[in-house]
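User: For documentation purposes, I need each entry recorded in a consistent format: the amino acid sequence on its own, followed directly by the corresponding structure tokens. There are two entries in this batch. Please keep commentary to a minimum and don't merge the entries.

Assistant: Recorded as requested. Entry 1:
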Amino acid sequence: MKHSTTDFLKAAAHTAEHFGFRTIESIKKSPGCPECTTSLPHSINTSDRALDDHGALSIPDAIDFCEKNLHAIKTPTLWYSLRTNTTTNEAELTLNIFNVPKSIAEVILIQASRSLLSELGKSDHLVKINSLGDAESSSRYTKELVTFLRKRLDSMSVTAREAMKTHPYLSLRQLLNENNELAYKCPSPLEYLSDPSRKHFREIVEYLDMSEAPYEIDSRMIGHFELYSDALFSIETSDNDSESIISIRGGRIDEYIHRRTKQRIPAVGTVITLKNTKPVSRLPRFKTPNSSIYVVQLGMGPKMRSLMIIDELRRAGIKVEHDLASDSLSAQLQDAERRGARYTVIIGQKEYVDQTVILRDLIERSQEQVPINQMVKKLKRHAPLIS
């Protein structure tokens, strides 16, 4: 199926907005950005792109984060960017989540990416995922990888041996590029995860299981050691012979941001690229409809279920608001009222277990418990539809 650049960008913007992402311009106008006045010193450079064979790092967004002063926001920050490249005939959506160290950040990115594919009629896809772990995990794995490779130098090419002098990850990447059997016999980074990193990765996999997403764990997806930490993922579509090829790459870049800014800031991003497309002279403008529905959650299980509900409402054409990164029930209810929501869909631990939601009318101060399979029917009586 051939997708025009405008159709892709329109679907990308609608999907991003539905999952809580905003443009930088919108964020800077919000009440939560009163101190966004001073830039963050950094050493991010466009040359860093040459290191990124995984393809999930958006250099322009990393620079914008520092120079457009988003670092001043200490609460979870979700923003997106749209770009076109007339040289490569590509259109691009980037999704960024900062100040969210928990796995819900990766989960949101994976679901938003899958939802965009569905919106574009590409429902047949596969999520590939791996984890490099935190600094402790990486240190463990690096030692094991060095030991393994040093014992097998005679089976390695000159290029792979030379790469060992810089970092064993680079040697492994070279072996993978050469399709050397050593690359597939090397220890897996998953075997050396610290307890926090193991929990982080397990939660992402649990969401993939819960949402019945087709996935596989790819321990050879490693990215560059200076760029990525913890989870990396890609989403592959099965129709790469079609005219429109969509590439999706995501990963956590906490360590990269730390190296370039000297600040500890949790960061994760996804780059979604439409290839073989005609450029547009200017990016189309989109108007986001207001919503009277706000989804409230409390707990990791309810967060995951909420994300599935948000996607179900997207497919039903119902615009919703939410703050999936929040762990506070009262803060979410206050945010719902601040945004002028009429109804809240609440999922706590009991509702998660019972497969129900609480539908609360904030004007009438009334509420009812509704089975999940009846939720959309109930909400459609009240919610404005996406035009």
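Entry 2:
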Amino acid sequence: MILDPGLNLTLRPMKYPVFFEMYKAAIKNTWTVEEVDFSHDLTDLRGRLTPAEGHLINRLVAFFATGDSIVSNNLVLNLYQHINSPEARLYLSRQLYEEALHVEFYLTLLDTYIPDQKERNAAFSAIDNIPSIKRKADFCFKWMNSIYGLQRLDTPEQKRQFLLNLICFATCIEGLFFFGAFAYVYFLRSKGLLNGLAGGTNWVFRDESMHISFAYEVIKTVRQESPELFDAKMRSQVVEMMKDAIECEMAFADDVLNLGVAGMSQRDMRQYLQFVADQRLKVLDIPPVYGSKNPFNFMELQDVQELANFFERRVSAYQVGVTGEVAFSESF
């Protein structure tokens, strides 16, 4: 079974072909940072952003500076060694490349948006000196360290530990922290600001959605093979984890929006995060907790914007659509 200790290397016959298909789909979605055009963003940064919007962007890029690096570390240190499927490890190898690409994108973003070296250094060390970002990082490290050093999954409890790590990084970190960040980006894009950032974020969003879909497929496979692992205690732990993640993200929202950004409020952001959390829980067969609706119409129009720019984009923007259970209507 997929969480049995060992290192299965046999790709023929394939036991889990769905993961190989995900790997092939990800290859078709290749993009590069050089394709992102920041030229109009510089004009916006120099004269079109309000002080409150400028603060929002500074906090956002500070979070981006290390967010995907944490995800990459968990993937290498914790996930790869325990998912005993050569097809799935192919996908994880591709995901690691995509995380590196995201790090490069955010590095370029910081170099472009923050020319002052001292300010840039402060952004890179945000997990140490900005409390709202440190809180999110501490949440990530807590769950990354939860199975660090666990060499084998021999017992049901060890397998549950692993699953909680996988669920956390898919639903809370990639699926909530980053989707909260995407909301700020697309809010600004809805006002005609920072289209280069939004264009690059489209590709990151697509990658992250596929990462979440992959994790859900692993969880679905484990549930089919070992349904006894998904007991009431574990479901309760997932709900508590999600509630904790929302409070971490709301601390960030309070920081990001504390100067008063016209058109976006802390109340709306909490409602949006609760909506996203419910979607994540439903895919895990856990009843929704909040019953909130999406307050951000601009998020529902995100795929429309992609179509509007269809003929202006490189081929990598539309080679392959995201498949699986992370459709636009559900993710946001």
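Summary note for entry 2:
Residues 156-190 form the longest helix (35 residues).
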